[in-house]
Amino acid sequence: MDNAQLASLVEEYQKEHAPRLDNHLKFFQELPSLEEAIRFACGPHPHRRHFDATTLENARKRLMQNPEKLREFRVFARLRDYIEGETKYIGFGDLTVYDTSLWLGAYLNRWPKVVYLHAGVRIGCDALGLTTDAHMIEMDQLPRPIQVLKPHHAENFLCIYNDCFHGGSTKRRFC
Asked: pTM for the full model?
């Protein structure tokens, strides 16, 4: 896929998909307390359809044991690492850890500076010929048209459009 095609997809993403993610993150930014943010961040979501209520409740309880600890992390990466450590043992995978971190990061005004990889994003990167051996990819390693996006939007873009990068479906998924 050439840069002109990618730029066109990025433009489509910015019009059709970015506002949905921005609105979801704004919801978290406007919550009245960190405890409410944790409650919603550990709640049901389409990405979590395979989790039962007990698993989500266990994650909520785990993060609620010391909610103020989350405020200590000044950068998103540290927040994400902490949430991963607190939730991996109950079955949260890369996507759920990322989502929980992004949503709580929005509340705390901590934003990713890199694109974190989970299954859908990794497929998108692979389709674009990008090296994905690590759990993240730097923004400057992405094709130029994608670099105009903020990292959390680049993650969403790579997941939604991954089938398009190698000539697959033009049907857009919702991440």
From this structure: 0.93
